[in-house]
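Thread amino acids onto this structure.
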């Protein structure tokens, strides 16, 4: 019997009627999480290109002024959307920290001329 990946542990202790409602909500969560992964992948593609541009032109990996403006903007958007602005700030800072780490790595090991736009292949990493 194949198990529904949406069921999780709840299947063991939730009544069937409530379980059906929970599964419907989890279907939406699955779609949203998939969209988040795709959105993040696109964002990192763009930031990798920025990292290459910065390395080529000897620009610093981080731009605190840009970060401040972007965080303020996203906190405003979060408040309008009834999302906790402090959570939005933490989430963005978490992503930016990773981007800057990549930019440092790119500046230390710039891509070869033969392969300037090659995406980093996370899937082949251990
Ligand atoms: C992507 C950039 O590099 C860094 C990462 C940022 C981000 O992920 O939003 C913003 C500013 C920089 O510290 C950039 O300079 O635009």
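Threaded sequence (126 positions):
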């Amino acid at each position: 019997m194949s198990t529904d990946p949406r069921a999780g542990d709840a299947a063991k202790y939730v009544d069937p009627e409530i379980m059906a409602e929970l599964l419907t909500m989890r279907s939406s969560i699955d779609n949203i999480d998939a969209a988040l992964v795709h959105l993040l992948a696109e964002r990192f593609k763009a930031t990798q290109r920025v990292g290459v541009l910065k390395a080529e032109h000897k620009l610093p990996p981080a731009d605190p002024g840009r970060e401040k403006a972007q965080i303020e903007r996203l906190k405003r958007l979060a408040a309008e959307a009834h999302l906790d602005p402090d959570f939005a700030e933490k989430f963005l800072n978490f992503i930016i920290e990773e981007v800057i780490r990549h930019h440092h790595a790119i500046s230390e090991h710039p891509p070869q001329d033969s392969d300037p736009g090659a995406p980093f292949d996370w899937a082949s990493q251990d």
